[in-house]
Amino acid sequence: MTSKFLKLTSLTIALFAMGTGAAHAEYPEHPITLVVPFAAGGPTDVVARSLGAELGKILKQPIVVENKTGAGGTVAAAHIANSKPDGYTFFLHHNGMATAPALYKNLKFDPLNSFEYVGEVVDVPMTLLARADFPPNNLQEFIEYAKQNADTINLANAGPGAVSQLCGSLLQQAIDTKFTTIPFQGTGPAMTALLGKQVDILCDQTTQTIPHIDAKTVKFYGVTTKDRISKLPDAPTLDEQGLKGFDFKVWHGIYAPKGTPEPVITKFNGALKEALKSEPFKKKMADLGAEIVSEERQTPESLKNWVDAEIKKWGPILQAEGMNVN
C-alpha cells in the first residue's frame, strides 16, 4: 500500500507541475494595465497608447492605459511600487524616474530597488514653442526679448520633475534669464493653454508638438537635441542657433512592481521587442519624431544601468540649482 500511495503521490505532483506550467504558458489570462504618470493626451500618454495597441495584439489581451498624475510622476511610481506583482500591472515612465531622488526628499519608492525593469522604448526630442502671437519670430529674437521682458513671460510645464520642467530649467540657465513658471497636470493641459494663448512658452516633446508645428498654430524656435531630426529636417537646433551644448531628449522605459515573476518579465520583454519592430508602431513614432531605441537598450539590464547613470548625472545638477520639492 505504501508503494502504491507513493506512486499516486508522485503522479499527483507531476500533474500539478504540468498544470502550473500550463498556467504560466497561458499568461496573460485577462487585460493588463499600463500606468502612465501624466495626463491623457500628453506625449508620454501618446507613446503608451500606441505601444499598448501593439502589445495587445501580441499578448492577445487588451492593454488598458491608466493615467495616474501628480508630483512629476512620483504618485504613479509609488502606486506601482506598492502594486501586486502579479504580472498585470506595468508602468511607462521617462527621465523623471532618474530625477526624482534629487527633487523629492521623501520618496515612497527607490528607483533602483522598488521595481522590476523591462526595457527601454523610445527617445523623443523636445521642441521650444511659444503661443502663436508671441512677438519674437526666431530664437535670437526670443533671447533678446526674454532678457528685456523676463518678468512678463510665463513658462508652462508639467510640474516638478517633468521633462518639460527640466528642459525649461536648462533653457533659463542657457540664456541666464528667469521666467515665471506655471505648472500643469501634464503637458496635454499645458499645450491646451498655449494654444489658447494663456501661457507664453513651453518645452514639449515632438510626440505632441509636431502636429501643431505643421499646422502653424504655435511659434517654433527649434529642437533641443544636438542634431537635427528627420521629421523636421529644416528645423535648426538650439545648439546651432547659438545655445552651444544644448542637448536634451526624453527616454522612456517600462517597469513592473518588485517581485513580478521572472517568466512574466521575460514574456513581456519579448512582446515589447516584437512591438518595437511592428510597422504600425514604427510609423507612428516616425511621424511624431520619436526614435525607437536599439535592441541593446530594449533589455531589463540596459534600462537599469541607464537609470543608475542618469540618477548620478542629474543629482548634482538639480541639487546645485536648488531644484528641490520637499
TrEMBL record:
Signal peptide positions are 1-25
A Pfam family that this protein carries is TctC
UniProt entry keywords in alphabetical sequence: Signal
Q: Could you tell me the superkingdom of the organism this chain comes from?
A: Bacteria
Alphabetized InterPro entries for the sequence: BUG (IPR005064), Bug_dom1 (IPR042100)
**Family statement:** Belongs to the UPF0065 (bug) family.
Know the name of this protein? Answer: ABC transporter substrate-binding protein
Instruction: Please name the source species.
Output: Advenella faeciporci
